Amino acid sequence: MRRTSRETELSARRITRRGLLLGGAQLGFASVLGARMRYMQVEQADEFRLLAEENRISIRFIPPTRGRIFDRNGRVIAENEPTYRIILVPEDAEDVQDVIARVSQLVELEEGDLNRALASINPRRPFDPVTIADRVSWADISRVAANAPALPGISTEVGQSRVYPQSELYAHVAGYVARVTDRNLSRYEDPPAVLKLPGFQHGQVGIESKYENLLRGKAGIKRVEVNAANRVMRELDRREGETGADLQLTVDTDLQDYILARLGEESASVVVMDLENGDLKAIASAPSYDPNKFVHGISNPDYAPLRDNDHRPLASKTVQDAYPPGSTFKMVTALAGLDAGLISPEDTVYCPGHMEVGGRKFHCWKRSGHGNMNLEQSLRHSCDVYYYDLALKVGIERIAAMARRLGLGETHGVPMSAVTSGLVPDKAWKLRKHKQEWVIGDSVNASIGQGFVLTSPMQLAVMMARIATGRDISPRLVKRIGDVDTPSRGGTDLGLNPNHLRMIHRAMYSVSNNRRGTAYGSRIIADGMRMAGKTGTAQVSSTVVDNSAVPWEKRDHALFVNFAPWDNPKIAVSVVVEHGGGGSVAAAPIARDVTLQALYGGDPPLDAYPKKDRARVKALQARLSKEREERQALRSNRA
């Protein structure tokens, strides 16, 4: 059927209208698409450019420079040295074992380093770098860099490593650093990312550990452009980190060196304390060890002799070990009696060589007895019976309170590792610890520093400092942090009767300067330098032994404490010689030599010693001077 002209015209108008609608829709869609493309290409250009760049930009930490440690005179105790290392990023390596095999053809790799590296890969995230070789030569670094295209995931870097120029002098004080361990990471709720950098070092013991956060500093960040093989093409941006704070300690290297040389092969410790501000001018444990061997992981052949040595070179004896103080504790008991008003200097006690308490005999060290003893005589002769009797009058609670007042039984905040608080026992402590009541025999034993009483050489030095000054002086080991001095720890008045302290001073002076004093053989005769001291002998076992007839480890400990000059105190000294026998024989001579060395700032003149000792002292000074020169030369060679 043919369509009429009217129908044809109507159909054309319909088609035109539909075409317009369809064309309009297409135009609208094209407009929206164009607008979107303009928005993405113009408005969001920077964002998409950044996203593209991030596909080829790596953000890396810049390890901070660790702060240095100095002695009181500015001598370096701990510093940093450059070191080269080879790094592997497991995620970027096609085959870890194959890549390591290729590297081993270029560089001689230690089996131990390789094993540690492989063992640390699995626990870490695949993009965390791992050190496979540390302290390699520049030639090794060059060979690896030249072959970088064939070593995916491998890179080289220059780092820093800790070094201790003074070697064994400050091993127990400054401590050492080593590679970050899981134990180190467990210290933090959210460990800083810098600790996971390859080869990064963390303080393990001593000052290095206690001041880790200050010494470490803050890491920097750099943005580098890398290619498909993770090879750095260029550095785009860098933000430097913050160098760790430098620390200045209170110790004197010359005095520390002398003390270790003087102690020789003894298992012993010495603390020297300045009485103006509490500065620890020396704090030495013997024997010592070289902390440099621990920085990169100590070998078993090096570690075994330290571990198996019965003189325990790894122990910080000055603060870590606690010993019965023996007769050095008698000043505590005496001051407790004086402070309570229960005795006077003229009161005497008869010593027949023993005292019977509760059906048990407590013997004096002098079995034949001392006869009648007053306060000064009891300290001069170190009569035990006098203090047995005093303990019955005073009681353990007053004795314990005085001991704590004089600094025993606390750590004093010394920033060293494993600092002991010692033990000042009382009735409550025994009931809590042993579920037993305190008995009078416990007080008798405590009165002469035996039984449950335990003190460290550090605490004994504090005790001496407080008796010498009458102030609650405390030890200070860190003198300055960065450019800021730490507060003096000279203390304030203890509230003790000055007359009582003078009585104790005179009695201690007679210990060292009266012909019948137990330390007369180790006296100082130089005017203005004489010392006041007290000997001590601490039993290792419950039975009295003949020290010359038993093995070394069963002999008594030898102790000596003193301050000097006695009439104008400037320093306090404590000495403990493990299994040294008697304090007057083993510890007092060391204390006398150390005291003079500290007061004179070097080798004292021979006329500071009694005439009978001068030839021996001259030979000793010559030998120690030679040994110190040899040790210094050895330390310089190591550096």
**Quick one: biggest sheet?**
7 strands, mixed
Q: What structural class do you assign from the helix and strand content?
A: alpha+beta
Distance, first to last CA:
114 Å
Query: How many separate helices?
Result: 22
Helix percentage: 25-40%
Output the radius of gyration: 37 Å
On the 0 to 100 scale, the average pLDDT is: 88
General form:
elongated
| Beta content | 15-25%
Residue runs with pLDDT of under 50 for 5 or more positions = none
Tally of DSSP β-strands: 21
Characterise the protein shown here.
The chain is an alpha+beta fold and 639 residues long. The chain has 22 helices and 21 strands. The strands form 6 sheets. Strands 2, 3, 4, 5, 10, 17 and 18 form a 7-stranded mixed beta sheet that branches. The chain has a 5-stranded antiparallel beta sheet with strand order 12-11-21-20-19, sandwiched between helices. A 3-stranded antiparallel beta sheet has the order 1-8-9, with no helix packed on it. A hairpin with a 5-residue loop joins strand 11 and strand 12 (280-286). Helix 13 packs across helix 15, helix 14 packs parallel to helix 20 and helix 15 crosses helix 18 (440-447). The longest helix has 39 residues, at 5-43. The chain is elongated. The model has no long low-confidence stretch (mean pLDDT 88).
Describe the secondary structure blueprint for this structure.
Elements: H1 5-43, H2 45-54, E1 57-62, E2 69-70, E3 76-88, H3 96-106, H4 111-121, E4 130-136, H5 138-146, E5 154-163, E6 176-179, H6 182-185, E7 201-205, H7 206-210, H8 212-216, E8 220-226, E9 232-239, E10 247-249, H9 253-263, E11 268-274, E12 280-286, H10 292-295, H11 300-308, H12 317-320, H13 330-339, E13 349-351, E14 354-357, E15 360-363, E16 371-373, H14 375-381, H15 384-394, H16 396-405, H17 427-434, H18 440-447, H19 457-469, E17 478-481, E18 484-485, H20 498-513, E19 532-538, E20 557-564, E21 571-577, H21 583-600, H22 611-638
Parallel strand pairs: 2-10
Antiparallel strand pairs: 1-8, 2-3, 3-4, 3-5, 6-7, 8-9, 10-17, 11-12, 11-21, 13-16, 14-15, 17-18, 19-20, 20-21
Helix pairs in contact: 9-21, 9-22, 13-15, 13-16, 14-20, 15-18
